[in-house]
Amino acid sequence: MMELAKKLSILADAAKYDASCASSGAARKDSRHGKGVGSTGGAGICHSYTPDGRCVSLLKVLMTNSCIYDCHYCINRRSSNVQRARFTPEEVVQLTLDFYKRNTIEGLFLSSGIIRSADHTMEMVIEVARLLREVHHFRGYIHLKTIPEASPALIEMAGKYADRISINIELPSEKSIAILAPEKNIARTQQAMGHIRAKIDENQAEKREEKKLGRRAKRDFATGQSTQMIIGADDSTDADVLLRAHTLYEGFKLRRVYYSAFSPIPEPSAILPLVAPPLVREHRLYQADWLLRFYGFGVEEIADANQPNLDLALDPKLAWALRNRGVFPVDINRGAREMLLRVPGLGVRNVERILAARRYTRLRLADLVQLRLSMKKIMPFIIAADHTPTLLDLDGASLRQRFLPPPEQMELQFDNPIPTAADVKSSISGEL
Ligand code: SF4
């Protein structure tokens, strides 16, 4: 029988392709056979951000990497020639508790390949959560990946034990799903998301009622759902991706859509692209996603049929501003909140600060410097008490040029597999 550590190494490695909880990429280092302390590989611990911005460590594993489906982009697909392993629910529980007690994790992210049937697989996943919550009274964070083909009653049960549940939409279009994941379909996935949303709404309404009555509401359903879309495995444009994401946010109140740049897998299917899309595409999609959710942009303003893909060299808000120079400059002392949010370099938090400060004073450039704004970015687009951009500034053909990274820096950015700290920070904070 395969030993637990070996299973953990296989099933943690197999889980790394799921970006629904973002994991940090680091070179493999190991101290098992010699000097030093600690190891970056094999233990399956990753980091994820909670809605309040806290970073939590999770044990991220699959129940099994065997699967009866044959999704072309997946290393665990039926036809893949990888070593297979399978945990029992008790083993996952044991590992979670061991890591938790040693203070190395704050929760569990559990997904699985599909074995025997969707219902059978969901039952195993739920059993882990049930044992943790009911037998061991585990109060840590649990994120369960659910299977759209499973029966609604089982998905509901998963939601009772988990803090977050997610179902991967995988690809933005029905056509791409039919080619790359023939056993799946978007309609069924959306149906399952609709069911989860109805349960979340129902639970929240009950909680509000309990609160009104002065009773302490008990948590008995997950508080949110999320999904993942793979980028670059098919020919979908950024407009297709963003339109799908927008539909999911609007229709199912998703907490997050995660964009995962397709990375070529060992022994890939012949219909997959040979090279990964530039990682910066994933980063631009995250930025565009924030514009949709927090800045009041519509999908067609960011990408449409005439311009279906995002400009990889500029962030999408700056690219929009350069295409719509006629609406600038915006007066920071008088402009409406909606217009301030459209100024490149002004994030949601800083717009709120400006709105609060201008009630008492007329803001000057020095006040903006104190907010630590990128003055180079915002100055061509704003009017302040002591600043008006020259028409030449806004109309000049060189304005775009001014914001482009120098050629050598661009090369670095495009080739670097790991986004810079600033990239990650702006993806997370959404300050654009
Ligand atoms: S169902 Fe999931 S685990 Fe199975 S092949 Fe498809 S993506 Fe991979």
Structure in words:
The chain is α/β, with parallel strands linked by helices and 432 residues long. The protein folds into 2 domains: 4-22 and 41-266 and 273-277, TIM Barrel; 316-429, no CATH class. Strand 6, helix 7 (238-252) and strand 7 (256-261) form a beta-alpha-beta unit. Helix 2 runs parallel beside helix 3. The protein contains 18 helices and 9 strands. 42% of the residues lie in helices and 10% in strands. The chain binds iron/sulfur cluster. Iron/sulfur cluster binds at residues 67, 69, 71, 74, 76-77, 113-114, 181.
Structural class: alpha/beta
The percentage helix is 40-55%
**Strand order in the largest sheet:** 1-2-3-4-5-6-7
Q: If you compute it from the alpha carbons, what radius of gyration comes out, rounded to the nearest whole angstrom?
A: 24 Å
Q: In the residues, how many domains can be counted?
A: 2
Q: What is the CATH superfamily classification of the largest domain?
A: Aldolase class I
| Rounded mean pLDDT score | 85
